[in-house]
Structures are given as structure tokens and as C-alpha cells.
Amino acid sequence: MVGSVPPIVPAVVPSIATVPLPRRPLTPDGPDDLIRGWYENELGWATVPGEPVRLLVGERFDVLEAPAEVGHAALRRLAPGSPVAVRGDRMRLLVAAGGAEELPGILQWLEWGALPLDLTAIGVGGLIEAPSPPGRDGPNVPGPVQGAAVWLRPPVAGCEVEASLPTMSALGGVGGAPDLVRLVDTLATHCHRVRLRRACAQPLAFS
Question: What's the whole-model pTM score?
Fold first, then answer.
């Protein structure tokens, strides 16, 4: 029609593709890249730059650390899928995020607060050495060196590992997560027994 205004054709704006989260390259350069890629890509656990590979604590899990003989006594308090690592003579039991912050209050409530116990916690901002992934031995993945961290109960890729970690919310509940209070009580009890046994084994000092 003469004099009619031509229709306005909207400008085609190219769509902006969503940027995916960064992932480790599928062709890693070295053994540390293989280890780091397993934790970040398959478990979704954060690592920090540097060698050896270290895991960031406080986001997906916290850690309770005790003598290995104490930790072995507490394994029955954990769910079958709850990861546990060993480094030297120390055992590291993964618990739900926030568990490290709860530890002093739990010990006080259980009346263990006044006693020196070889039981520590690693929480937000902490780091632990990443044990070598299970079943990844090969020419490009060296076996653990003496004293390095190893998995006693490794996490399983593709599973909700956090659901198996001891947590405060399990107290009195019927869920699958174990109770953090009972775990801490078991650890504290055996830490005290070990301390008493070592004290009795020391020779008496005579003036």
C-alpha cells in the first residue's frame, strides 16, 4: 500500500552460549593432572594449585583426624560409603561440612572438653593431601610414596558421597547418615584410652 510504513524487522542478536564450568583437560600433562582431574571432574571436589594435589576442606566435607588405632576403633560408626584416608599414623575421617566447627561444643557436651585428646578437626579454609584415586595405578600414575595419604575407604565417583558423611542432623533421626555425636564420643573415648595406656607404659622417674 502506498504510503504505508514498512514493517520493522528486528535485528538478529546472536545468542550468547552458556559458558560451562571449567574442567580439567581430557588429555592431562602428568600424573598430578590425572589425580586432580579425578577429584574435580568425577567427584566435584575442589583442589588448589600446587604439588602435591591438595583438597579444599569445608565446602563438601570436613575432616576429623585422630591416631590410626583410634580411627580403626571408630569405623563401625561410619556408613559403608563414608570415605576414610590414612596418612602415616594418622587417620582422616570425612564428616559433613560444618562438623569441624561443631567438634568443640560436642566434646564439651560429652564432658570430654577438659581432657587433652589427640583429636583435631579441619574445616573451612583447610587443606588435606589428596590420596591417589583408587584403581588408577598405571604407567602415568605413580603409586603412593611412603608416608603419603592413601584411601582406606575411597569415595565412589558418581555417588552422593556427602549423604554418607556423619552429621549433626542425624542425631535421633532415621536417615542413612551416621550420627556425628556418637562418632566423636567413640573417638574421644579411644583417644583417652590410648593416652592412659601410654602414660602407664612410661618408666617412673626417680629423683
Answer: 0.78
